[in-house]
Design goal:
By secondary structure, this protein is α/β, with parallel strands linked by helices. Helix content is about 35%, strand content about 20%. Helix 2 (about 65-80) packs parallel to helix 3 and helix 8 runs parallel beside helix 9. The longest helix has 15 residues, at about 65-80. The chain is elongated and about 85 Å long. Bound molecules: guanosine-5'-diphosphate (GDP). It comes from Micromonospora humida.
Length: about 425
């Protein structure tokens, strides 16, 4: 999600403008020099586009020197934002405090929108035209307080935003796509047969959806699912079904085509390298993941405890995967599959509201700051969720984070928001 930063001297009306942009009628908090203000970013929408607005005021609360403070704001904005809004008080005009910031904004490649705020009437609007001299292009005369000109400003913001990603997040309605994968003989066909009684012919597809002929629609837990590449599981050509290379290509293809993967493992055998490779494929493809330990009926009671420990160790890189112990043969826990799939998909599509994310993050970094490195500790400025399926987060920081601290943030993020059954991607954008 693109980021729009609002920059300007104290008292030019940045908070009022942010409130206007996010369309919230809340008590207007005007910026007072030296007072730390909430720097939580807000979600905004206009004409069907979403973006994040960050009020850069309050980022340098202890700066004695106003010119330095606004320059620092501008710098942070340039580094973290896709679009910068530079706010000037139209009644005051530009001051030399503004000029330093303007110079740095002009040097940056970022689009800057110049706003002449407090343009409450046409007399002031005429005066606002003199702000052309700042060299930031046409000033947008607005009254953040009364709403004058804010529609034009929002249109200008949308024009300046980077092009929307082509990914369509609203997936078409239809059955969810599941890949049932695992090395030969783990029991894929046996598990599929469990559901086959309820299986529908592929031609009898759900209205408005196309099902690949190699897929089948299967009823699991009272819901129709699209099992991808089930043809591969059905055609039992015995040992002649192809080389391991071919099988692995087919597995990768099924995972790619699916939203959630069920990786079947054989509980009566140790987890093999091939099992691990399949798990890696799912994680790298960014798909939701349910691990089903099949043939659980072969595991005797006193081995279970040790087996669980062993499994924990083998799967420590993916502690978030949903695990099931089942038996395709006896039917044990097979009814747990559908709820596990639903849970994993729900996590996969979770979107954490920006304000909530940053409230949590602020508390986290306050309680456990990044360790000091060479006399300084990198700071996390704020975070946004860049996408879903799987959830992807971007942390804006003052410097690169230590790998250990980044893992800590991910672990805490999962503790707070769940994401059970789904990978989560975290990337760090340090200001350079
Ligand atoms: P696939 O190659 O993954 O499709 O595996 P199959 O479904 O063909 O199963 C391989 C072998 O494991 C067959 O002999 C099955 O009868 C057996 N099998 C599958 N599931 C179970 C299970 O839950 N318990 C036991 N004991 N055997 C199983």
């Amino acid at each position: 999600q693109p980021v729009v930063a609002v920059v300007g001297r104290p008292n030019v009306g940045k908070s009022t403008l942010v409130n206007r942009i996010i369309g919230r009628r809340q008590a207007v908090v005007e910026d007072v020099p030296g007072v730390t203000r909430d720097r939580v970013p807000y979600d905004a929408q206009w004409n069907g586009r979403s973006f994040t607005v960050v009020d850069t005021g309050g980022w340098e609360p202890d700066a004695k020197d106003r010119a330095a403070a606004i320059a620092a704001q501008a710098e942070t904005a340039v580094l973290t934002a896709d679009v910068v809004i530079f706010v000037v008080d139209a009644m005051v005009g530009s001051t030399d405090v503004d000029e330093a910031a303007v110079r740095m904004l002009r040097r940056s490649a970022k689009p800057v929108i110049l706003v002449a705020n407090k343009t409450d009437n046409s007399t002031i609007e005429l005066e606002a035209t003199s702000l052309w001299s700042l060299g930031l292009g046409e000033p947008y005369p607005i009254s953040a307080l009364h709403g004058r000109g804010s529609g034009e400003l929002l249109d200008a913001i949308l024009d300046a935003l980077p092009e929307a990603p082509k990914i369509v997040e609203n997936r078409p309605r239809g059955p969810r796509r599941v890949a049932l994968v695992g090395r030969p003989n783990v029991g894929k066909s046996s598990l599929l047969n469990r559901f086959s009684g309820e299986e529908r012919a592929v031609v009898d597809s759900v209205a408005g959806t196309t099902v690949d002929p190699v897929d089948s629609l299967v009823e699991i837990g009272g819901e129709t699912w699209q099992l991808v590449d089930t043809a591969g599981l059905r055609k039992r050509v015995g040992k002649a079904s192809g080389t391991e290379y071919y099988a692995s290509l087919r597995t990768a293809g099924a995972i790619e085509a699916a939203e959630v993967a069920v990786v079947l493992l054989d509980s009566s055998e140790p987890i093999s390298e091939q099992d691990q490779r399949i798990l890696t494929m799912v994680v790298e493809a960014g798909r939701a993941l349910v691990i089903a330990f099949n043939k659980w009926d072969l595991v005797d009671a006193d081995r279970r405890y040790y087996l669980d420990k062993e499994i924990d160790r083998e799967l420590r890189r993916i502690p978030w995967a949903i695990r099931l112990n089942l038996s395709a043969q006896t039917g044990r826990a097979v009814d747990k599959l559908a709820p596990a799939l639903r849970k994993a998909l729900e996590s996969w599509e979770t979107r954490v509201p920006t304000a909530q994310l940053n409230q949590w993050l602020t508390a986290l970094v306050q309680a456990t700051p990044h360790p000091v490195r060479g006399g300084r500790a990198p700071k996390i400025l704020f975070a946004t969720q860049a996408g879903v399926s799987p959830p992807r987060f971007v942390l804006f920081t003052t410097a690169p984070l230590d790998a250990g601290y980044q893992r800590f943030v991910e672990r805490k993020l999962r503790e707070e928001f769940g994401f059970e059954g789904s990978p989560v991607e975290i990337s760090v954008r340090p200001r350079k």
